[in-house]
Amino acid sequence: EIGAAALKKLFLGQVTQVGGQKLTYVRPKERSVYRAFRDAILRMSEQDEKTYWLKETFRGGVKFGKELDSVAAVVALVEAEPAMVGIATRKAVEGKAGVKILNVAKD
């Protein structure tokens, strides 16, 4: 389980460790899957998120995580790399032995 605030900080590059474990995030380019995550966890519009990353890039601040072409690619990477946290649909993860579904607790 992970708190929504901790997950938000991870995906905004503000932290690289959660619960003492170093993690890297990966997200799909597929808009519908990522939009659901952005709306529920980041609570930012697409434009607000773009502005955030432009400012951080310009300042030399936090680094953007990995972005892959599909949910299947995200799941495959998370399955291969234990220190990865990715955004995927529950259906894409079912039956994947090396992938654990994180329950997100409301903060």
Structure in words:
It is a single chain. Helix content is 45%, strand content 18%. Strand 2 (17-18) and strand 3 (21-22) form a beta hairpin. The chain has helices at 4-11, 31-42, 46-59, 71-80, 90-93, and strands at 2-3, 17-18, 21-22, 24-28, 66-68, 84-86, 104-105. It has a three-stranded parallel sheet with strand order 5-4-6, with helices on both faces. By secondary structure, the chain is α/β, with parallel strands linked by helices. The longest helix has 14 residues, at 46-59. The protein is globular, with a radius of gyration of 13 Å.
Secondary structure blueprint with pairings:
Blueprint: E1 2-3, H1 4-11, E2 17-18, E3 21-22, E4 24-28, H2 31-42, H3 46-59, E5 66-68, H4 71-80, E6 84-86, H5 90-93, E7 104-105
Parallel strand pairs: 1-7, 4-5, 4-6
Antiparallel strand pairs: 2-3
Short description:
With 107 residues, this protein is α/β, with parallel strands linked by helices. It is 45% helix and 18% strand.
List keywords for this structure.
two-stranded parallel sheet, alpha/beta, three-stranded parallel beta sheet, 107 residues, 45% helix, 7 strands, 18% strand
Note the total helix count. Answer: 5
Rough outline: globular
- Separation of the first and last Cα atoms: 12 Å
Q: Strand-and-helix sequence, N→C?
A: EHEEEHHEHEHE
Q: Summarize model confidence as the mean pLDDT.
A: 90
**DSSP strand tally:** 7
How would a crystallographer describe the biggest sheet?
A: 3 strands, parallel
Share of residues in helices: 40-55%
What oligomeric state do the depicted chains represent? Answer: single chain
Strand content: 15-25%
